[in-house]
Amino acid sequence: MGKHDNHTLSKTTDTEVGEIIERELKRQKSQLILIASENFTSQEVIKTMGSVLTNKYAEGYPGFRYYAGCKYVDEIEELAINRANKLFNSNYCNVQPHSGVQANTAIFLAVLNCGDKILSMNLRDGGHLSHGHKQNLSGKYYEIHTYSVDPETELIDYENVRKLAKITKPKLIIAGASSYPRIIDFKKFREIADEVGAYLMADTAHIAGLIVSGLHPTSVGIADFTTATTHKTLRGPRGALIVADKKYSGLIDKSVFPGIQGGPFMHIIAAKAVCFKEAMKDSFKEYGRRIVENSKALCSYLKDEGFRIVSGGTDNHLFLIDLTNKNMTGFDAVGALTSVGIIINKNVIPYDKLAPTITSGIRIGTPAVTTQGMGIDEMHKIGELISLTLKNRKNKTKLKEISKKVKKLVKDFPVYTKC
Ligand code: DSN
Fold first, then answer.
1. CA of 99 to the centre of ligand 1 (A)
2. Which of 44, 57, 74, 117 is catalytic?
3. What is the distance, to the nearest Å, from the Cα of residue 129 to the centroid of all Cα atoms in its chain?
4. Which atom of ligand 1 is closest in space to residue 35's alpha carbon?
5. Is 159:133 a contact under the CB 8 Å cutoff?
6. Most exposed: 12, 208, 250, 288, by fewest CB within 10 Å?
7. Averaged in consecutive runs of 10 residues, what is the pLDDT profile of the chain (419 residues)?
8. What is the set of domains in the chain, with CATH numbers?
9. Could you give the angle at the alpha carbon of 210 between the alpha carbons of 204 and 216, nearest 5°?
10. What is the distance in A from the centroid of ligand 1 to the CA of 19?
11. Is 59 tagged catalytic?
């Protein structure tokens, strides 16, 4: 079971803040959350994030802190590290990065000098801001070269990656994406990195939960560095971690602290430990299996409804729809879907001619609705509601009817049942 029962979220007595949180809770309870990077974390994770551990400064690492009084937070961080290593089958990890961007940045700082070359996936084709966007630190401090997906298949063209790697001779190759619906072949990336003497970093922010469930091949033991967020498919607190071989421990630890961060968030590290334990359970493997099953079911329903699916389908928790032939932008689609309570995000698609603020596509993901306990029948209902909304986006009466159906569907699958 992926569903979290018996949630009792405690309320703040600061009414101004409390009322806003209450409204956000109501929103989460009444809308269909199909943002591929969002999820509903467990009550245990939420409780742990709200613990007194937030009071403690602990710059440094267990046993080597710059503050006194770290006996118990040392125990917490050691527990989180041991659980992460068990979960990812690794011999070293750093659980302090506050976010995926910071985990990635820590790797850059660890192995690159300003001006060194990175070869990463084009943002338009599925890459991430922190892989070299010109406004991100990565794009400002390093020389970025990008690979694209094949224009026909919309899959990563490994031969082209190899060719580009040989031409550009990067010091670091990044494998990983924030909107790529297919399996990433980390072994092929390893071969390419070895051929040109580059480091390989796998950014598994989106797929970490699928990796630990055995639903996606692991990058651990293949890439030099694996970064992951803990709040997406891993379903933990907002944060990140880095997994690598222990020969890199000194470099990475220094790079996270004091390199790019100060005091670690001990309450979040504790919640990461809770998440890692939850992710070791057989029920989490089953959850991962159902995320992918649901993603495939929703994707294929919408494909049958006449929507063009980028790369023709999905192997993971998300898929992309190209709206070009529907005379609609991603921006338009988000507006219509939000109006009926279906929350997705606009997304650039391979070779997109439109700006990231407009986009030709949308990205849809199933981690959150799968946590709610929805299955294939519900995916078909959601597919119908999405299709009807997009086809009737200017028909207010129709949109009102759809909105009622969305509310009913979500009500049948409560996440937080006691609040
Ligand atoms: N914002 C995350 C996503 O939605 O994919 C990535 O940082």
1. 11
2. 57
3. 13
4. 4
5. no
6. 250
7. 48 87 93 98 95 97 97 98 98 98 98 98 94 95 97 97 98 97 98 98 98 98 98 98 98 98 98 98 97 98 98 98 96 98 97 95 98 97 98 96 96 73
8. 15-37+282-411 (3.90.1150.10), 48-279 (3.40.640.10)
9. 80
10. 27
11. yes
